[in-house]
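Sharing a chain and its predicted structure for anyone who wants a worked example. Both blocks are below, sequence first, tokens second.
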Amino acid sequence: MTGTDSGGAGGAGRGTDGNERTFAALPPAQGRAFAQTWWGQAWLKALEDTALDLGQLKKGRKQARDGAVGAVSVRPGRITAVVRDRDGTAHRSDVLLQQLGTEEWDRFLDMVVERAGHIAALLDRDMPPHLVEEAASAGVELLPGIGDLEPECGCDAWDLCLHTAALCYQVARLLDEDPFVLLLMRGRGERQLLDELQVRSARAARTRRGPAGGEGAGSGSGSGSGDEAADGAAGIRAEEAFAARDILPPLPPPPPVPQEPGLPPSLDTEAAAPPGIDADALEFLAADAAGRALRLLVDALSAGHERQPLDRELTPGQDAVRLAASCGDPLIAARLAEGTGRQRAELELAVDAWRHGGAAALAVLEEEWQPEPEALARAKADLAGAWEDGERPQVRAGVAGRWTVVGADVQLRYGRDGRWWPYRKVRGRWGAAGPSAADPASALAGVGAGA
């Protein structure tokens, strides 16, 4: 018997043995992007990179938006749903994904147990990028790549058709809510995974509580008397010291990472601050530095940190926006606006942009750039191909890679990274209205225009 998730993507929806989950049909996706999380977007990228016929992909996306995908069944190696055409004809559609082998699961579970943060993230229905990167380094590919999604459909299409494309777009919504859906496709249900993690965690805890090591380093080492060792008059040969490496106790584990930043010293003293020094501002900057230091420490201790790109250095203007976005204190925001030569309204727009995408989003707001001919042609092709015939909203081209929707206070901006940013005019000013998207239709869907 298969359980049914009648509560949407986030419910249990699990069979009696945990090896199949069935999700009730989701409502139409008008006005929203299909994937909000990075792993949901990676799933769609594998789909879009695999498709040979982009026309079928567009039709499938439209079918999914219109709610044509029925209940979705997820089990190891396969997802299944009935997809209806506009005339009501129903087709059973399947998409196959290679399951992980036993050895791959062993490596993945051992890796997860090594870091409590991985377990906590999964239980919180999150899939951190470093978890996926560490798994890939161990030879375990969790997310699908080009060609990993194999479609099968009752319409007898030999390749990806609009029905299997619609199914994949719908599954991206399920993945957004619960990454265990992906792990089930790869071969293990949530209950089975959590049970195995519990067993391995208990075994690791028993190992850590065991004896620190074998016999002491002094037995059989030929190092001479304690007095000789103490005064340094007699040593041991290098090969003897190297041979003793296996009987020495292991190094103690590093201290735990603090749960929150430390408090900076208080500057509220009887002594007056030197001229030109603002004690309140200095305390605020010290607290911000402590928070950033903790984040850097966590990143540095994570496996694979050496492969993570370094954040580029921020300009004073960008850092002022970051500070204003993180503190929420209107008095501090007013001082930051004054210090950077911005009006309060301008800083508020900059803060909104920063919260949608950091320095990249701020650049789209404040910088004007003219795309090169190749980039401009690519952007125009994206605009032309993002909607079905007759459904594309009318847009008016402006300067610096900006297109305004005719009859609406909504705008699309094309960034230097080739991504689309939605903008909305409020009280006569253009402001960021959402995160970026790889295609203009998804960007507009995020603000409810041109969906």
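Comments welcome. The chain has 16 helices and eleven strands.
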